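Model: Ready when you are.
Researcher: Fold this.
Model:
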Amino acid sequence: MMNSSIRQPFCRLIAAFVIAAASVSPALANWPQLNAIQPRGGQRGTEQIVTFQGARLGDAKEVLCYSPGFTVTKIEPVNDGTFKATIKVAADCRLGEHAFRVRTASGVTEMRTWWVGALPVIDEKEPNSEFANPQKIPLNVTVHGVIDNEDVDYFVVECKKGQRLTAEIEAMRLGNTLFDPYVAILDTKRFELAASDDAPLLGQDSVASIVVPADGNYIIQVRDSAYGGNGGCQYRLHVGTFPRPLAVIPAGGKPGTEVEVKFIGDVAGDFTQKIKLPSTPDSHFAVFAQDAGGVCPSGIPFRLIDLPNVVESGDNSNHANATVIPQVPAAVNGVISKPGEFDHFRFHAKKGQTFDVHCYARRLGSPLDSVMYISHLNGGAIVGNDDAIGPDSYFRFTAPEEKDYVLSLHDHLKKGGPTYFYRIEMTPVGPAATVSIPRMVQFSQERQALAIPRGNRMAALVTVARRDFGGEVVLGATNLPAGMTMNAETMPANLDTIPVVFEAPASAQLGGALTDLTATHVDPKQKIQSGFSQFAELIYGMNQVVMWKTEMQREALVIAEEVPFSIKIVEPKAPLVQNGSMNLKIVAERKQGFKGAITVYPIFNPPGVGTGATTIPEGKDEAFMPMNAAGNAQCRKWKTAVLATASVGNGPVWVSSQLATFEVAPPFFAFQMERASSEQGKNTELFCKVQHLTPFDGAAKVNVLGLPPKVTTSELPLMKDTKELSFKLTVDKASPAGQHRNIFCQAIVMVNGEPVVHNVGGTELRIDVPLPPKPNAPAPAQAAAKPAPAAAKPAEKRLTRLEKLRLEQEEREKAAKAGGDPTPKK
């Protein structure tokens, strides 16, 4: 069954189950996982059995594919973690990488890739790890193999003189594991005719090509570049006479047109070919070189944009000979063909004209590390850039006056060669937006595709990256599964991420769709281009560097079987004030028989608001989620949602609350707290001046928090006309001495029957150790009857020092009362 979306066709693979009803186990209400698809690819125009492996796949219903060309005729469960699918691959299916997901009755899996080639597939057969004993294979096949630790695989092919022989490998690109392959072509004397570790066009993968020098056998060697390997290091090795260019000029064209391109870097020589371009832009589009020897296994990325092409001509190594761009905007294409080369393009611009200037080189598979700048004709540079988007260059240029300018380009390290191709696009500045769902868990695709149980909800954060416009944004969706709705508030101008809740009615049919999420300006007169883009990062290297990732241009949404609980937020009737706190009530509705604990997580916090997780205990129906607002929290009404998860069956279930409203408001009053001091065992007072900011009814309750141990006080009422509060502090003899900070007041006002908690003021309390008693104080009766022994003289001397301190203190007090000099006399 085929549907359409805005950008590209969506192929939904419906499986016909040929299984007796009695053999089907009941679906488990939890989310499935897809870890691998085996084999890792197949030949177009064929039908084959593909194995999907993971967890909780026993109730698989459908395979979702992000591109057309596939039909599933049968799904056969093997066990809860595995099923087999019979897949027909169309004869015109696009070559290369394709993205798959599995929809089960209970959810949707992460994305995994599957590769389509033009050649028949054979398996590697051991033993083939010795040069003298290679596996014999015919030309023009794809070998599916594995490299184990310190393994080297050898293959032998018979060739004729003058034939092109190419060996291209898909290894890192398969997205299985960190596998950096090495490929070489050798003759029977073990002389290496061509070898490749990393090819810029293929990332960490490799390609080796030769023109066969003589009739005979030739050996293909495959290994890990560091002689590593493991059972996960699978590869697809394409061996044949097909062309393998490494560059293309021009590297883009207008959608819907036919363009003649020149393929560069093929071992048999450069050649031209006409390509019919699709009518709609597609970031996955690539061009495939083809001749009598076949078609290259993977294409060269090709830009689709409505710009006229300009190709460099002649010696444009200086301003005087610069290639002329007839008019801008335009796209210029060329090659830094030798080390030290500079390319120059001359164009005319009017004063104030502004362009985004992008160099596409590494993003298209070129080895070029570009440095790009615009200069006055025969003058100095105005603007330039080295690395802006990876090694590619970008800047924005505004013409300071109407005249001719020169766009220049060279390699950062002054390198060059026949495959150092580039494309520079000079485009007008216009508003655009990219919509995405951010990663929720590091190194995982968890909750980036969403399953919404029937009669329930699921929330996600949606991010909008604005370019060259501001203001509020309205989110939308096209091609939602039948019956599903999307609830989202208008995105405020100062935010780029808000929560969105998808809801499925209890009557909805199980199903799924790849959905376009869109962003439009709140003002319909302002037109912006928007598209969805989300990357699945499949392979990480050292220091968490992404080695291979795949872009998805639509969001996967499915309606799943019901689950035994749902949750909702009880919307607060009172506001959360700045420098205040609140307990948000979360209520669970359980189906009969489900008593498990439910963990609740926040998904969105407005600026200045913090929220903590909570758990609804086993057998209970509610819990409270703590919320706090900073002093600078943005005041307004906000929409939020929370996520909830519980263990059901043999895996986790995720649902969400509705979009609920709560308000962040200014505080009702402010406190100015004076410092206080006392001695251990002596009471004191803490004074607070009250400034009323928002009128309130009734009496607030005020407590002092943060007091040190053994210091207590009582709660005081605060009326709307109270100007000052005085707290009586009881200080115990055992209260710790020192300077005690972070003491504040907590004031609670009741609004609509709910507490509004303020954390206001701030001060410190100093507690001193009492001075020793005076020396002339009457001694106890028992001590007076008995004179002190002579041995007590050292103690008398120590007491005299303390006595001196006490006398000095008394003199200060007397002088202060008399208005004299408080400096003690010596």
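Researcher: Now this one.
Model:
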Amino acid sequence: MGLRPAVKGLTSRWLAAAGLAAVVLGLGLRIFRLASQPMWYDELIAVDLATLPGGLRGVWEAIVASGYPHPPLYIALLHLVFRPLSPSELTARLPSILASLAGFLALYLLLARTISRRAALAGLAMLGISPYAVYYAQEARPYALMFLLTALSLWLLWEALSHERATWWVAYGVCGLALVYLHYFDWCIVAGEGLYVVYLSLRRGHWQRQLLPFVLSLLGLPLAVPTLLHLVRASRDLGQVVVLDVTPVAISFGSTWMTLVSGESRYVPQTARLVGLVAFAVLALLGAVDLARRKPDVLLLALAAMAVPFAFVFLGLPALGHVVPPYEERQFIVSLPPMLLLAAAGWDRLLGLIGSVRGKTIYIGLAAALALALTAANAVALQRYYFSGFLKNLDVLPVGYLNARAGAQDVVVANSHSIALSLKYHGNHVADYVAKPRQTEGGWQFSRALSIIDFDPGQWTVALPEVLAHRHVWLVSQKGYGDPLLREYLLLRAQPAETTEFGPFSVESFAGPP
């Protein structure tokens, strides 16, 4: 055997072993300490909506009544999970962990079909240790499912365009409908794919074989229009697509890529994020150049799938007077499959050079440096995530304090939805919890329903004199929420006993009237 075939075979075996190891490691990372973090506010909202009565119809009515600004598919999935299983950190995150595991297969199918098996293995290796993908595999949020459906949608579209069979188009249409029922941002993926199909039809002149079946496959999308109208109303009423004192510059392309590649800034030092970004960008650039030469259609598909979401945020929303706050970068997870496609193509090109070009020391060194940079940046991120003591839900600190202090005759008053839901799911229910203080003509009243929704106005029946008749009142305040007049009202009618601070939260104890 010659030197080049030997090197090529060795490289292939090494890559296959590395890809398999990364997948195994990725599966372990996603399962490791899955239920260790208590559910935080966004997760609790999803769980609360999914556990309200009324079946699937009740889920949709709850979404509309609460102004929840997302389509209903994810909440419906949680509702079905909670029918046989009681809500917990583990069961609430079950759809996300399963979607994340299936995401490996979807990404492999996409990359193997559009580039090569070698690129697919490289993509799996990057996905396996991606801290961003790990985070959202362990949250009761729709983002892991968004990644899965985006990768599947791109693969199904490629197969439908290649084989021109009705079964592939039907499968693609079902996947597209699931996408737009999952999250409003997923419309951008369908739009990007549409741009790609229009381009192919114009270039090849066979619109009957490409554009027409694409349009027919998406005839089910009007079914999702009610959810889109609900999003518009919810955004207007609740400010979920909000106007803030930030500019689009606050969400730069660089920060978005850094988030997707090396995790969120709350877990990862800026230096590690920059190292991961540079390494990933080099690979993506190599991949884009190689695809432009060998497989331009694949490059155009990847760029179209990335361009529309970015254009929507950076151009569309500012034009409408809306700005998405920085934490909304998580919605760009729909751009992660095409980004991994470009980077995997870069690995494919680099490894190909190592196996076929003389004087390849420079390529071996570059591959080693990029692998080391990505691995080190991701390792730092994952270490911070698992072992630094970071707590996603700070609400559990005052709730734990109350679990230990509040007595059976006490009343706990929460001044924010976040605290109220944490009391509902993390409290020991020894004390009498009330929430959402409201000032009425007859004085302050409270709701006993620790929920995101008030179905019955008659729930507002607990008046302040009744509250103060108990032995103690515990007021849990979150800075920036609630009404300061409530505390003043309590001070006029009760004796303050003690105050304890927990970062942005405070817990004040008031004795009953003298």
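Researcher: Key takeaway?
Model: The chain has a mean pLDDT of 83.
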